[in-house]
Amino acid sequence: MPVIYEKVALIGLGLIASSMFWAMKRGGLAGHVSGFARSADTRDTAREIGLCDEVCDSIAKTVKDADLVVLCVPVGVMGSVAAEMAGYLKPGCTVTDVGSVKADVIAQVGPLLPEGVHFIPAHPLAGTEHSGPRSGFAELFDNRWCLLVPVPDTNANAISRLRNLWDGMGANVEEMDAEHHDLVLAVTSHAPHLIAYTMVGVADDLRRVTDSEVIKYSAAGFRDFTRIAASDPTMWRDVFLTNKDATLEILGRFTEELFALQRAIRMGDGDHLHDYFTRTRAIRRGIIEAGQDTDAPNFGRQPGNK
Amino acid sequence: MPVIYEKVALIGLGLIASSMFWAMKRGGLAGHVSGFARSADTRDTAREIGLCDEVCDSIAKTVKDADLVVLCVPVGVMGSVAAEMAGYLKPGCTVTDVGSVKADVIAQVGPLLPEGVHFIPAHPLAGTEHSGPRSGFAELFDNRWCLLVPVPDTNANAISRLRNLWDGMGANVEEMDAEHHDLVLAVTSHAPHLIAYTMVGVADDLRRVTDSEVIKYSAAGFRDFTRIAASDPTMWRDVFLTNKDATLEILGRFTEELFALQRAIRMGDGDHLHDYFTRTRAIRRGIIEAGQDTDAPNFGRQPGNK
């Protein structure tokens, strides 16, 4: 595949940025990739493992001459990072991001960018429970979705070029408007994460009572929640604070349903429970047919050795 | 390994029974295994795939001369099955079960068994989202826990023999009393399952609004919930109805915590959220160190092909 951007700058060097670097290298998609992280430790690690062609000590140097700048920082600091770099951007470059919330990022970052810079917010729906510069891998985006959320009147060639980059990194690309994105993600990601965090927190409280039994017997279902609840705390704090309305709306619906099921348990209404559980089974089938998960039992996890 | 029981009878031929059969064959633990399922379709499938040395058309014939009878049916019908078989049990045999709830099963089944039969309730903490006679595999119990819940004054030799069987099938065996079992499982399994069912139900409602986007973009976190919510509806209906008090208690605590986190989101209390999410991260580490889950990103799922 031909080089799509001569120079790419990655701001923030966590799971997504490091996976983008390896995926761009795999596909030969970028001529030169520079990287910056706020923490000196992270920059040292990046240099040690060969993450980025050049790791810079300042944002100004990182974005200099870049054709594409990718903001890979928590949603809560997108605005301050954009303010810091705005004066150093190459005219005509594209600025994008990988944040999990879009309306808030557009409101924060958009007004700070100079005339002539193409701002194309994006969100790759891919991740793992690990974080930091060592957690990335080239295959992370393979067959995952990347949603582009361009603001009105964005240059079509600039969009098409960014689309080609994500396509080259293995993703399926779609466009969506910001409000709709934030609602869909509240359902598929933000509310489930908060619920998993909550259940794990409850179990953690009880763990002190039951002397590690919660950990020992976690394979009965609970351990799946703990994977999600091991995700990066800063990233997720910012997601909930910046997608507040949609998340709270979905959590409100969730609580209503939970109360209805609790009532069915209390009243012994087995038919209600059975009907509900039969309906939810179908959605799993849809996800497997859509190629978004494996049908292997327990996700194909390997059993441990005795 | 030497044969532990000359004849084993499996009542019900779903995921657990079929996995027990293959695990017993792998270890050479049983001389002869007979099996029974209420549905003629299930019996036909079992015969077709060689599940059990003999598939019988009646419970009476299945349990005849058996040294061990294993009830592998939903918790809600344990009592009626026990009543049906009680008159045909071999004197001195052991009756066990694999139900996810123990106090209720003991109350249902215990009084129905004749004098001289050893009743040793059990619960292997292992499963997948699949069900039925084709879903079993020999490795299901490897390095998983099996909890034995013997009632007071149970014959020590009978316990030791059943323990050896589970050990031979790959499990780690522990003993626990019924009330404690039901509370621990409410935390590690029953409440998480109800929560997953609820979230998937909410998303299913919204799916109609958003035209399959929930399925399409499920990899953002939601798909993990759908695996749990694809579990057998009859089994889970019975679990909630028979472990009502402990499940409702844990769900009550869950709702309290969820409301506290929702309030933190609404008030913009980022510190509360960050502290909570940092704490839950630690429990994942404990589970991995205990050998109860893999540290591979996303459970080591294979990425799909584009």
From TrEMBL, chains A, B:
UniProt domain Prephenate/arogenate dehydrogenase: residue ranges: 6-295
UniProt cross-references to PROSITE patterns, sorted A to Z: PDH_ADH (PS51176)
GO molecular function, one term: prephenate dehydrogenase (NAD+) activity
Catalytic activity: prephenate + NAD(+) = 3-(4-hydroxyphenyl)pyruvate + CO2 + NADH
Pfam families according to UniProt: PDH_C, PDH_N
SUPFAM superfamilies per UniProt: 6-phosphogluconate dehydrogenase C-terminal domain-like, NAD(P)-binding Rossmann-fold domains
Protein family according to the UniProt entry: Belongs to the prephenate/arogenate dehydrogenase family.
PANTHER family cross-referenced by the UniProt entry: PREPHENATE DEHYDROGENASE, PREPHENATE DEHYDROGENASE [NADP(+)]
The protein, known as: prephenate dehydrogenase
